[in-house]
Design brief:
5-stranded antiparallel β-sheet, elongated, about 250 residues
Length: about 250
């Protein structure tokens, strides 16, 4: 009895840290949406270094009238503002009137200059499901957005109706070397970061400490089970002793 009490107390003190960690992170994960954990990001340099994340700043991008679009590792940054990320590589980006059009292989995105998404065109709303290039046809002072597809080129004036383009040659979008003056802004925009939800989840599972952290959490879980069993055993023995005395 004394032996069990002795080790129960010692394991209890050591396990208190892990109980607090598991309970606090579990409580936070249970209220992910309420706390907005998925939307909050952490970019602390020491933590990003711990995860082995490094910033990859692109040297090439697309230039607009008084602006730019830079893409790296699925992250889109327009004039320093992060946009909707896309894992697919872009096929072009052009200035279309007051809008900025960006396309990947199957979707056309229309943004305002302030980064507000105006429209997202894909599937049956496109003249073809596959976009090969994006360009502008400046005809009669009315710029038309142009898509190159396996079935030919198509133009639109409103982004809704598409017409085949026969002979005219549009100005196709292509990546250009980004001005060196943008270096500071690009370094800031492409700093590595992680959602707070991911970090808390890794703390909860122990993965933030690598494979040894996972093993440590497994051992902690086993210790908690043993503490529960020994605690019940101590309680039963104590209750029996009290009955015997009476």
């Amino acid at each position: 009895m004394h032996f069990v009490r002795h080790w129960h107390a010692r394991f209890g003190v050591v396990s208190a840290v892990f109980i607090f960690l598991l309970a606090s992170t579990g409580l936070a994960l249970n209220h992910t949406e309420d706390l907005g954990l998925a939307k909050r990001t952490i970019a602390a340099p020491w933590l990003m270094q711990w995860y082995g994340l490094k910033s990859v700043v692109p040297k090439h991008g697309y230039l607009f009238e008084g602006g730019y679009l830079a893409i790296s590792d699925g992250r889109w940054v327009m004039d320093g503002r992060p946009l909707l990320a896309s894992k697919q590589p872009s096929v072009g980006a052009v200035q279309w009137g007051e809008l900025r059009a960006i396309a990947n292989a199957d979707t056309l995105y229309l943004y305002q200059a302030d980064g507000q998404l105006v429209d997202k065109v894909s599937g049956a709303d496109l003249p073809n499901k596959l976009i090969e290039r994006l360009g502008i046809l400046d005809h009669n002072s009315t710029p038309k957005l142009t898509l190159a597809t396996p079935q030919g080129n198509f133009v639109t004036e409103d982004g809704l109706t598409w017409q085949p383009l026969e002979k005219a040659q549009p100005l196709w979008s292509s990546e250009q070397v980004l001005p060196s003056a943008l270096s500071a802004g690009l370094n800031q925009a492409f700093k590595p970061s992680l959602p707070l939800e991911r970090i808390i989840l890794d703390l909860h599972s122990g993965r933030i400490f690598g494979r040894y952290g996972v093993a440590l959490m497994d051992v902690s879980a086993i210790v908690l089970i043993l503490l529960s069993v020994s605690g019940v055993w101590i309680y039963i023995r104590s209750a029996r002793r009290k009955k015997t005395k009476h």
